[in-house]
């Protein structure tokens, strides 16, 4: 497969297949290898939390600063379309999981919700990927993350239970809308928007200069977590692996087409494709555990963390950029 | 001189995700207090060692209360949670120090 | 073959701020050892969930000792701390494994 | 209506370094589960307060099991570890809630 | 009210009342809002500790470096005057708390001790505030923090108990003098003083460049903590709120007059006013819990964290700068 | 004693004996003093872990980047010689500990293993020391750390038990080879080597710019730990102190001679001497606790953390540089 316009910038001594691999991906692979080899390497959970907080704020602030210029009203149609995407994706995934995967209703609904929602870690890697290739993208992409996180959870609950009175909808909405990642992303966006680039200048050593280093450490830990899923995957069989790769390839394409239809740039389209292709491993599992407790949490996490996250981070993102370029050529 | 009163000591080990729900339940069911500690462990539903793969860690909740309250809490846990969540509930006698005279 | 000796198991749940004082007290009152775990909880004095608002978290202190020592520790806790600090003290029988022959 | 079964509650407090070994032992000796909590403390071998000087912290391991398993675990701990590692093992009766009918 | 020389540097699109708000204050407000809305956002305590350690060392090092030039002996009169300030403030607060607030003796004493002592977080915000406005201040201000932390604690204990033999004075002094914040501030001052600017140069990326970012995260957490005090405040009624605002307004003025009398610059005067106006929420509560256990810790924390800290950080500091400028005009 | 070419760059006001003290050493001394004075200052263990992870990755990455140029095959003889050094040092220490120290066999073996292995913290200080003096050194020194960590552990176990069948050698090897520090050092080396300086550029704010600040915080904590060993030292008497100073002075000399014989530069020789002189306080104690449980862990930690680490960091490293220069003059 032609992975698009990846020029090899690495020196000649590196093996060819490493070509185009960002060092942050090498950190991820280091984590996976250490985990598989049963090293005792482990980041303390508190460090992981600090890293997530920094990433979320960085992404939000950056987006907010650049949003400053933009007339806000123009974004509404895009925002609406992205919300619809978050509803459609789990509805696509569910029948596949039921019929081909033969999962119980609750499990299919829960997995579908994971894949309809998003992973901020994957999003950050996509931004870094485009950044290091000098491909521009829209400033308001973090807004899409915020918009995509929630709808799939509601759909997942409805798929599992119907529109049951037992579900405490208000509480579910509260927990998702005010979940840590939403608050930090939105908060960052707003602070960035108010303060502008000059105002944020004294904060940039922490939030902007360290961004890629922080992302590298984050991916090291994600690699360890990915490795810890392999046992679970082995138990749950080959369908889950196939779904974990096939689903993002399809939803990434849907995202790319939508991005292009919404007139996003090639970079923005690639990121929307990545978001569509990514699967949640934080907000959705937490919500499902409480709202659909009969669903087995190990199934969806094995797929999301054990298959889809590594797939997207290592080979998916270049593919979604290729999608974006192709779709733009065809539709543009 | 020292007054100890006979009570039950009920211990619940379960998934951390249940902490907010369980706290509400305990108050509703009449527990006068509880103590919670973060834990990890293994049981019928496999290992919960705090790594992500297990989605979460455990909590160990301890309630000193009278026999009826203990029964009510245990019954509620069994009905509401034990089908879908990792959980063990165990009970024993204890004696609690009466802090202030004329308290009971 | 295995020797278990009857002992008391005394548990004290109280504010973390007391840890240094309590450790000194336990040694003075003859405890041969103790085990401490960080905890959170709720009781008559409200919720102590480790957020700052509650000024601190709790500790859960466990002492395996003979009945007299347990009484002494409980009495001291009641006198010295229970008026001004969040605290619950409870007691039960236990059997402790004799580690080395001829120890008792 | 609620079924509680009589069991033993075995508690082991020992050095954190033993955690992986102890987990393997517990499974081999037939424990159906265990719960572990990080702890600190003091005993015959001095204070283990989590600072480096004490090389490590403690863990507090709790096993609900039948009497024979409890004996086997205690015997193994005594033989394999208690000479060279800080450790206290204590036992008491408990009643465990039967989760699913027809389980025992 | 005229808040002094705050020019609005923010772009026209921002609402007028945001004018002059530093992004770090926006982080604080984000924390408050998230807390009030019951978001699950929370910084791990270990991260909070890391942030405090970095702030204290940064402040100390910075002060130490610039102290280098100064002849030490000249500072003694100032240091003595500041010590006296730390004794006078709680003695002023106590009768007000007893008579108007109708607090029990122990509670009045404990709250008075909190308000006689200082908050390093507030101090850091004041430095950032002056820094971003280019207003110079004396290098040895961190020394004042060190000097102000202790005396109020001793006064508080005496107010609660008289000069009782039961109080282990030695231990109280030891715990305060060797408390974490004292050691880090003094240690930083001394290391900075010995090493000078050149020697510290390789450390500046961590301790100086990241300063404002670290302060932003710290304030995010402080905002969450502030929000968690609101319940407590509601229980303890309106007097505590009035005291939490009135007391700093008065003690800030005293601090400003003293600063001007000691010939501090306008910036230095504003900082001394801020220190006088700030209330402790770390060292004093810990000391009171052990030395005056009958005092209810929730009272003083609700006032200090729930009212005075947010008041100072958001509107107090500009007021204290205005104090400093006015006093300098009148007295200078 | 002439400590070599230390010019005093500090301003005249600093006491003479501080001359040449890097600020990071002042952080260490601050930690020691605070610990001795029983301050409640303490870094959370999770922060300590974050600092170690950053240090190990920084050292690895830096080495890897500069290794890029080097033909790998040339290094093999050096690597072999360094492995032999790791076997010889504990064999030298053991008889001394048995005969002069009168330690039990297991204790002597365990202490010997600690001194045959290495301390990455000491290594980092040595690099910073040479760096701030502008003395160049070889890029592949981190490889030596990796090579020296393991052999002494195996020797220690053999000394304690003979070549016993009870020892699970595979497991011991697994735990050491895949121990956290090995994985991070080697991982960093490899990632640095693959990515090269340009590839790592976006990571340099975190891993390179912050290096010395991170090292300063790390040494602050190490100072506290050192102070906590003093009680233990008092119990175990004067021999342990003498050994903790004498052993590194001897093994440092051996390291210096070996470095010169291997044609390392003066800087590289000084670092190899430092590695030889340093004693483990992480990997070896963990391994010994499981493999030789009869050995008292307090003995070896008191010597390694309480004596040798502070000795090396404060006065040892300048001495080893002096060794290196002298040996180079004599042999070169
Ligand atoms: N026999 C047992 N003894 C002690 N703790 C147990 C036992 N069985 C289960 N647990 C704890 O309860 C949690 C949930 O148990 P389970 O539902 O059996 O997976 C486990 O992760 C353990 O922490
Ligand atoms: N009935 C109870 N059962 C278990 N723990 C309790 C109980 N009552 C109080 N506690 C614990 O003891 C602490 C102090 O209790 P109190 O003084 O009642 O506020 C609480 O924060 C709980 O952790
Ligand atoms: N009497 C006791 N009561 C409670 N915990 C104990 C007791 N003795 C020992 N421990 C715990 O067991 C650990 C090891 O004990 P030891 O081997 O006696 O040093 C200590 O660090 C304590 O945490
Ligand atoms: Na998705
Ligand atoms: Na004040
Ligand atoms: Na060595």
How would you describe the overall organization of this protein?
- The complex is a heterohexamer, with three copies of chain A (332 residues) and three copies of chain B (104 residues).
- Helix content of chain A is 75%, strand content 0%.
- Mean pLDDT of chain A is 89; it is low at 1-19.
- Chain A has 332 residues and is mainly alpha-helical.
- Chain B is α+β, with helices and mostly antiparallel strands.
- Chain B contains two helices and five strands.
- Chain B has helices at residues 19-28, 67-80, and strands spanning 4-15, 34-43, 46-48, 58-65, 87-97.
- In chain B, strand 2 (34-43) and strand 3 (46-48) form a beta hairpin.
- The longest helix of chain B is centred in the C-terminal third of the chain and has 14 residues, at 67-80.
- The mean pLDDT of chain B is 90.
What are the defining features of this structure?
heterohexamer, A: 332 residues, mainly alpha, B: 104 residues, alpha+beta, 5-stranded antiparallel β-sheet, 5 strands, binds sodium ion
Short summary:
The complex is a heterohexamer, with 3 copies of chain A (332 residues) and 3 copies of chain B (104 residues). Chain A has 332 residues and is mainly alpha-helical.
Distance between the termini of chain A: 23 Å
Number of strands of chain A: 0
Output the number of helix runs of chain B: 2
The fraction of residues in strands of chain B falls at: 35-45%
- Helical amount among residues of chain B, as a percent range? 10-25%
Largest interface: A-F, 35 and 29 residues
Write the SSE topology.
The complex is a heterohexamer, with three copies of chain A (332 residues) and three copies of chain B (104 residues).
Chain A lengths: L22 H14 L8 H23 L8 H24 L5 H12 L3 H13 L8 H9 L1 H11 L7 H9 L2 H21 L3 H6 L1 H18 L1 H32 L4 H12 L5 H9 L5 H35 L1
Chain B lengths: L3 E12 L3 H10 L5 E10 L2 E3 L9 E8 L1 H14 L6 E11 L7
Antiparallel strand pairs in B: 1-4, 1-5, 2-3, 2-4
């Amino acid at each position: 497969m032609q992975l698009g316009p990846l020029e090899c910038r690495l020196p000649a001594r590196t093996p060819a297949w490493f070509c185009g691999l960002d060092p942050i991906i090498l950190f991820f692979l280091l984590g996976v290898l250490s985990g598989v080899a049963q090293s005792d390497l482990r980041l303390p959970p508190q460090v992981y939390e600090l890293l997530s907080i920094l990433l979320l704020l960085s992404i939000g602030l950056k987006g907010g600063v650049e949003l400053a210029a933009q007339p806000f009203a123009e974004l509404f149609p895009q925002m609406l379309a992205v919300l619809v995407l978050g509803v459609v994706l789990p509805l696509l995934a569910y029948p596949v999981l039921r019929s081909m995967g033969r999962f119980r209703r609750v499990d299919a609904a829960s997995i579908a919700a994971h894949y309809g929602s998003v992973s901020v870690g994957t999003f950050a890697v996509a931004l870094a990927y485009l950044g290091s290739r000098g491909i521009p993208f829209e400033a308001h992409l973090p807004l899409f993350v915020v918009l995509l996180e929630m709808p799939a959870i509601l759909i997942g609950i409805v798929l599992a239970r119907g529109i049951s009175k037992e579900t405490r909808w208000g509480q579910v909405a509260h927990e998702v809308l005010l979940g840590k990642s939403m608050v930090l992303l939105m908060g960052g966006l707003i602070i960035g928007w108010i303060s502008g680039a000059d105002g944020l200048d004294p904060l940039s050593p922490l939030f902007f200069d360290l961004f890629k280093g922080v992302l590298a450490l984050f991916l090291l830990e994600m690699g360890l977590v990915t490795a810890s899923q392999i046992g679970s995957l082995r138990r749950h069989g080959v369908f889950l692996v196939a779904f974990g790769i096939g689903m993002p390839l399809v939803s990434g394409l849907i995202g790319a087409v939508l991005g292009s239809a919404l007139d996003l740039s090639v970079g923005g389209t690639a990121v929307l494709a990545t978001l569509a292709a990514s699967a949640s491993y934080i907000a959705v599992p937490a919500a499902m555990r409480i709202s659909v407790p009969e669903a087995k949490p190990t199934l969806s996490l094995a797929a999301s963390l054990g298959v889809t996250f590594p797939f997207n981070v290592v080979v998916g993102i270049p593919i979604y950029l290729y999608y974006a370029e192709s779709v733009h050529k065809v539709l543009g | 001189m020292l007054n100890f009163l006979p009570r039950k000591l009920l211990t619940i080990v379960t998934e951390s995700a249940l902490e907010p729900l369980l706290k509400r339940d305990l108050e509703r069911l009449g527990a006068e207090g509880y103590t919670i500690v973060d834990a990890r462990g293994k049981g019928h539903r496999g290992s919960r060692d705090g790594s992500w793969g297990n989605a979460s860690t455990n909590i160990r909740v301890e309630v000193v209360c009278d026999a009826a309250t203990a029964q009510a809490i245990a019954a509620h846990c069994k009905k509401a949670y034990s089908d879908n969540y990792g959980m063990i509930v165990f009970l024993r006698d204890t004696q609690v120090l009466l802090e202030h005279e004329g308290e009971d």
